[in-house]
Structure formats: structure tokens, C-alpha cells
Design a protein that fits this description.
single chain, mainly alpha, three-stranded mixed beta sheet
């Protein structure tokens, strides 16, 4: 125990002596060590401060800012490109409007070449708009992976579109040829049936009724021509009834008017003192006057409105064109047609026939002025009841004319002359006689033609459309 205490005292003495030999002021090692420690601490402190001054998310923000700047630049370029694209769209729309206006102007007056050029211009501008639309779609999609296939498909459609259009046109031509073939087959079938059953009128009537119920399968057959003649007869009666009614309302001397018509039909300069027309038969004389004017020039392909000879130079093509016009016009309202194309061939026909039938004194007497005549002379078509009835008759005669030149061979028309004998095969009387005269009690013996009412036709298959005539007793003519 005493030995341990001695050792501890000895240790204290050694430490005390060491402290006396190395005082704190000259303790370089400790200072150096402390300086070293401080420098290390300063180093760590500086690095920490630098880390605090430049944290990790600053670099990320800078990257985002750079990306935003780039996006802004890209967006600015895209806006500029879209503005240019929009300007091109406006230019294309303006050009298309001008082309469409030219297309409308080509319809009135009708200018085939100008219409073709304007049509090409409109289609070109529409295709240009289609290309601009695809460019817009590509810009909107921005080339993203999801939109790439759409852009590719749009570009493919843009390339294929002209070829598809050409294929569609060829399909339409094939369809038209098929229709033409069907029409020719139907024509051959009708000709065969007519040749084998020419004496059976009941079958002929049934075929007429079928053709009127199914206009889609129409063909330029004799039966259709006979049905159209019936339409002309009804339209002629309707217009004549209205005209006679207006004449009576205007207090015309109907008997004097009838005598003038009789004189014109017999080619005499002065009317006779006594009329051959019986009481209440003035309508037949007036219908004769109207039909004579309407059918004048019927044997020419344009009613002698021009010197065209297409039916002689290109007969097959002319027949097809006439029947196409017949089918297209059959369902049209004539007033609507002339509102669109007032100076077409049908419009010129109406112009000439109206002026031939209604002379100025007649119109002024019936209506009190010449307003309708002034409109017709100006190239317009009045929207009045009287002119509407006239257009109904004009359309019926025009359709019959088109159908006549669609047939091969075309029918020949004939007209009974005044004073000629009655032939039941070629004529029918508009007045039914209750008492038969002549040998064997057959109607027509001892009767002659007072004046023709409407012409007759002889068709290529030998059938006859009878001429309508006004019969009078032979001793009273």
C-alpha cells in the first residue's frame, strides 16, 4: 500500500516538472495543432458555406430555364410559321371565291369553255386548301410519336387523292356505258315486241303505262313517243282554255277571231262571212292556231333556230344527246330551269314561240299592257299564270321534239289539209258525230277536214299517231 502511494506521488511530480519546462505561451505544438485544427475547421466551414451558397437545385433550375428559353424560341418559330400558313389560307380562299364567281358568270350567258376553265380553277384551289390543311395538322401534332402515323396517313391521302378521283371518273363512265347498253337492250326488246305484236293495242297501252310509272328504265321507244304526244295534247288544251277565257273576259268577238284563224289555215287573205265552226267549238279553232305556231319547224333538229346539222353529221351521238336531255328535263320545272339558264336552247325556243303566238295587240287587249312582252324581249321569262301555262305547252312540245330525234329512224309528221277526205287510219275527229253518214253507216263518209287541230306522226316501226282534225260535212265546206 505504501508502495502504490509512492508511485502516484512520483507521477504527479513528473507531470509538474513537464509543465514547468513547457509553459502554455510557448506551446507551439498545441498552437500548431490547434491552428491545424482551425484550418481544417475553416476548410470545412468554407465548403459548407459554399454548399449553402450554391445548393444542388440551382443547377436544375438553370437547366429548366434553358429548356424554357429553347421552348420559347421554338414556340415563336411555330407561331411565325402558323401566321404564314394562315395568310396562305386566306389567299387560297380569296382565289377560290374569284374562281367560283367566274364559274357562276359562265352559266349566264352559257359559255362552255369559260365554265371548264373556271371549274378547273375551283378544283385547284380546293386541292390547295387540302394541302394547307395537312400542313396545319402536321404543325399541330409537332411530329410527336403518337401523331406521326396520322401525318403519314394524311400525306398518303394527299398523294392518292388525284388517283382516286380519276378512278371515280372512270367508274362513272363505266356506269354510263352500262346504262347505255341497258337502254339499247330495252330498245331492241321493245322493237322486237312491237314487230311481233303490232296489231295488239292493249299491249301497247300497257307498255305506255309501265314507261310512265318507271321513268328510270325509259328508252327512246315508239310507245314512249306516243305517251309524250298525249302529254302535248293535254298541255295544248289547258293553254287554249286559258287563252279563250282571257279573250272572253276582254270582250273579244270570238266568231271574228275564229274566221281569221280559218282564213289563215286555208291560206286565204280575207276571212269568210260564215264560219264552218259550230257553236261552242271555238276552242278547236284556237287550239289549231296555237299548235300550228308551236309545231312550225318541228322537222328540223333546232326548229330552224340555227343551222345546226348534228343529226346528219353525227347521228348516233346526236340521238344519245337528245335522249339524255329528254331524261334530264322531263322532271324539271320549266320556270326553274329558265330562271337558271334563261338563254339556253329551250329558252330561245320559248322566246320565239311566245312572240309568234301572242302578238302585241292581242297581249295589250288581254292584259292592258305589254309588260310580259317587254320581259320576254329582254331575255327574261315572266312569272305569271298565263306565261306559266305557255311554258307547260312549250316544255311538252320540246320534249316531244327531243324524243323524235332520239328515235332511229326519226318519226315523220304530217298534217291534214283543209277540204281533204277523212281517213280513219291517219285521222281522228275532235268532234264526235252521233249520226253516221254514208254507205254502210261508217263514220267519215261524206265528211271532210274543216281544219287541222294537231299534226300526226308515222313512226319507224310502222305505227301511226293519228292527226287530230275538225270534221265538217262535205256539202257545207
Amino acid at each position: 500500500m505504501a508502495n502504490k502511494v509512492s508511485n502516484f506521488s512520483d507521477l504527479i511530480q513528473r507531470v509538474t516538472a513537464s509543465c514547468l519546462l513547457h509553459p502554455l505561451s510557448s506551446n507551439g505544438h498545441i498552437s500548431d495543432a490547434r491552428d491545424g485544427d482551425e484550418s481544417e475547421d475553416d476548410k470545412y466551414t468554407t465548403e459548407d458555406e459554399e454548399e449553402e451558397e450554391h445548393p444542388p437545385y440551382v443547377e436544375t433550375m438553370e437547366k429548366f430555364q434553358n429548356i424554357e428559353v429553347k421552348k420559347e424560341e421554338i414556340r415563336t418559330d411555330k407561331v411565325i410559321e402558323m401566321e404564314m400558313l394562315l395568310g396562305e389560307v386566306f389567299d387560297a380562299v380569296s382565289a377560290m371565291k374569284k374562281a367560283y364567281v367566274s364559274l357562276q358568270e359562265a352559266h349566264c350567258p352559257w359559255d362552255q369553255e369559260k365554265m371548264r376553265v373556271a371549274d378547273v380553277a375551283v378544283i385547284s384551289e380546293l386541292r390547295r386548301l387540302g394541302v394547307l390543311r395537312e400542313r396545319f395538322r402536321r404543325n399541330v401534332s409537332g411530329g410527336s410519336g403518337r401523331g406521326d402515323w396520322r401525318v403519314g396517313a394524311a400525306t398518303l391521302r394527299e398523294v392518292v387523292a388525284p388517283y382516286e378521283s380519276a378512278v371515280d371518273e372512270l367508274k362513272q363512265e363505266v356506269k354510263a356505258k352500262d346504262i347505255e347498253i341497258d337502254d339499247l337492250k330495252e330498245k331492241l326488246k321493245s322493237a322486237t315486241l312491237l314487230s311481233s305484236n303490232s296489231g295488239k293495242k292493249s299491249k301497247s297501252k300497257r307498255r305506255i303505262s309501265c314507261s310512265s310509272q318507271a321513268p328510270v328504265n325509259m328508252s327512246p321507244a315508239p310507245d314512249l313517243f306516243e305517251a309524250t304526244v298525249s302529254s302535248v295534247k293535254e298541255a295544248s288544251k289547258s293553254f287554249t282554255s286559258l287563252l279563250l277565257s282571257l279573250m272572253r273576259s276582254a270582250h273579244w268577238d270570238i266568231a271574228a277571231a275564229v274566221r281569221s284563224i280559218e282564213a289563215a289555215s286555208s291560206n286565204t287573205t280575207t276571212p269568210t262571212a260564215d264560219s264552218i265552226v259550230g257553236a261552242n267549238h271555238a276552242k278547236y279553232a284556237l287550239e289549231s292556231y296555237v299548235n300550228r305556231k308551236m309545231f312550225q319547224g318541228f322537222d328540223h333538229e333546232t326548229f330552224y333556230m340555227d343551222g345546226s346539222l348534228s343529226s346528219l353529221l353525227h347521228p348516233d351521238q346526236h340521238r344519245r344527246e337528245c335522249f339524255t336531255q329528254y331524261r334530264d328535263m322531263k322532271a324539271m320545272d320549266p320556270m326553274e330551269l329558265l330562271g337558271i339558264l334563261p338563254t339556253c336552247s329551250f329558252g330561245n325556243f320559248c322566246f320565239k314561240k311566245y312572240l309568234a303566238i301572242v302578238h302585241p295587240k292581242m297581249e295589250e287587249s288581254l292584259f292592258g299592257d305589254l309588260e310580259q312582252r317587254r320581259q320576254v324581249l329582254a331575255g327574261n321569262h315572266p312569272r305569271s299564270q298565263f306565261y306559266g301555262e305557255f311554258l307547260g305547252l312549250a316544255k311538252a312540245v320540246w320534249l316531244l321534239h327531243l324524243l323524235a330525234f332520239s328515235l332511229d329512224p326519226p318519226p315523220s309528221h304530217f298534217e291534214a289539209s283543209n277540204g281533204s277526205d277523212f281517213h280513219p287510219k291517219y285521222m281522228e275527229s275532235v268532234v264526235k258525230y252521233s249520226i253516221s253518214t254514208g254507205i254502210g253507216g261508217r263514220m267519215g263518209m261524206g265528211l271532210v277536214v274543216g281544219f287541222p287541230v294537231s299534226p300526226g306522226f308515222k313512226l319507224g316501226n310502222g305505227s301511226i299517231v293519228k292527226a287530230r282534225i275538225y270534221l265538217v260535212p262535205k256539202n257545207g265546206f
